[in-house]
């Protein structure tokens, strides 16, 4: 875990993020907090970005999604090359937990979270790709199945976090992936030890778009099924739509076929503006209360797993036809 959490940030033309996410056992709430380092290409000022999003079920069955964000000069940020040790302003993140506060339209949100447990790291890509130039954006899960405790405070409101299960994640690169969907399920409703990680993405290489790549990793207890090598990822199928906010995917490898769908209603998403190191801004359509249904075919047997409101589902896009409200948050390049 320490190896895969160490900072790679160079301070120029790069971004790096460590984020935590978890869902309440009753499926009515979820959180996402993200500690980010950002530096534009061309020698612009580096900065730290502290994000938080709270997802809560409303009385009428819809979703209330509240985003928060603050930006800090890089002089107020600290990060370690070995292990999880990040400071942005007064906010801290370590293997033991996270403490922080940031701002949003609903005022100030504060959190104090402990982290316990977790399983061995899960790599979405082949290990050798994490040290190479391709892809320009890397992502992995240093700590799946973390159990969180603590609380969030938003004004006079307190959201208690007691035994929420989720993950601690790490990603970095010299630019954001051109187009992608990313998904994760930390325990299905009827299979609490099953972990799903996948993406569908394509990038430009020398001005030419690659084919769509859909790496998928499914871990069931101690057994890990991977369909994530470059050739396999091209063979896999993955298609998402920014208007319907649905994503369908499938893969066949090692005697098993896995297929599924991920989706969420529009009010379960928030649009988050992501500054890109080479320039420009992309929008991350972010939900942590999505639905995922997974079909597993193996040896003539078919199993169906479902997570009703526990899937993480993100789409990174430059399109504007998604109908998701985009948060008005500080830009790190404006410091």
Detailed description of the structure:
With 335 residues, this protein is mostly beta strands. It has one domain. The chain contains 2 helices and 24 strands. The chain has helices at 2-5, 230-235, and strands at 14-23, 29-39, 47-57, 63-73, 77-79, 85-88, 91-94, 97-104, 107-117, 122-123, 137-154, 157-173, 179-188, 191-202, 204-205, 208-209, 216-220, 223-227, 237-241, 246-253, 256-263, 270-275, 281-298, 301-317. The strands form 3 sheets. Strands 1, 2, 3, 4, 5, 6, 7, 8, 9, 10, 11 and 12 form a 12-stranded antiparallel beta sheet that branches. The longest helix is centred in the C-terminal third of the chain and has 6 residues, at 230-235. It is globular and about 55 Å long. The model has no long low-confidence stretch (mean pLDDT 96).
